[in-house]
Amino acid sequence: MKDRKKPAILNNIGLKIFALVTAAIMWLLVTTINDPVVTSQFDNIPVKLLNTNIITEAGKVYTVLDNTDVVPVVKVTGARSIVDSIDKDNIVATADVKNLSELETVDIVLSSNKYNGKLESIRGSLEAVRLNIEDRKDTILTLRVSTSGEPGAGYVVRESAADQNQIRVSGPESVVSSIVSAAAIVDVSGASGTITTAADVVLRDAEGTAVDPSNLTMNISSVRVTVTILPTREVPVAASVSGTPASGYAATREITVEPASVVIAGKGSVLSGISSIAIPAEELDISGASDTVSRTVDLSKYLPENTSFAEAGFDGKVTVTAGVEPLSHRTLEFALNEVRAVNVPEGYRLEIVSLDDNLGHTASPLLDSPLQLTVSGLSADLAALSETELDPVFDVSQLDLSGDGTGPAGSYIGGLRFTLPEYTSAVNPVTAVVRIRKNEE
Q: What is the pTM of this model?
């Protein structure tokens, strides 16, 4: 039988296979040389948590611990042509809460949204997100307004108000329970007029430390605030006394107020009309007193309308003190020839017949012996007395000159008047017997 002829493709089959293998090896060598395997590093890749509603729907909240929701380093390995085309935004890191472990950790899955199947590997320096899961707590806090800094010289913060006075806060029970205050803080440094602004809400714990709000939910994070800033003015405090001290005593007229002046705040138009604050005399009654009298007075009752105290911590209480001292006496001498007559009717003259100082001394034109006047008053006032300034006067106007209708001529009895310092008085009356005569007589 004659042999069949072999197909041409099988001719030199060994040689052809050798050539094919050689070509494949050459292709691999060329590929490896021109597109080698490389590793690229990407830093700080955020991790997206999936299915967190599993936690929240259970009435709990979670907090990521130690920033484990960010992978510090991610290394991507693959062919250069693939790796070079990938940037940080292509790296995807997720952690599915469905896979939450008993240790409250969730494994991190890394991938790329570009050429993911062509990469040899994606490895991260962090393998799991660590969570702290606890009960959720809600609370409502009173929102107050506070200020920082100092307003301009001569101005004071008078009042502050926010559009809202409450804030709702929810979050981890341990964090929410630590919050004791909520405040909107406004910087008033150098201000000389009312400020209206939006202020951030700051939460603080019992030690006054700000609470990090990143894991909390607040219905508002800032609020519109109006801070009223008013001009100030320092005014003195004036006081007076009422009543009469005990017998033998007198008020020294030295009335002191501590503090002697106060700073008040109000609109400029109001302050311009205020020169002092007066305490009524009835607040300091010295009736029957034989020593210094002090009283504490609530000055706020006497503040002018539309003003307020400007000094921090001042409660409006002032101390009013009135001096009371025993009366002193001083005796001075004068003579008959020093006495002047005044208001003598025209056409008449007055003659002094005799003087009696009611202290056992008399004087007449024939016996001009010294007379005495005892003056009562405070020692400081009596020290200013001078005999040369007594100026004894007989005032005819004190007499009833109607008589029987024949005219003012006749004999009369009346008292002398002396010039004495204010707040002093004569103890003994000095009586004069006088005669009024017509000039031609």
A: 0.59
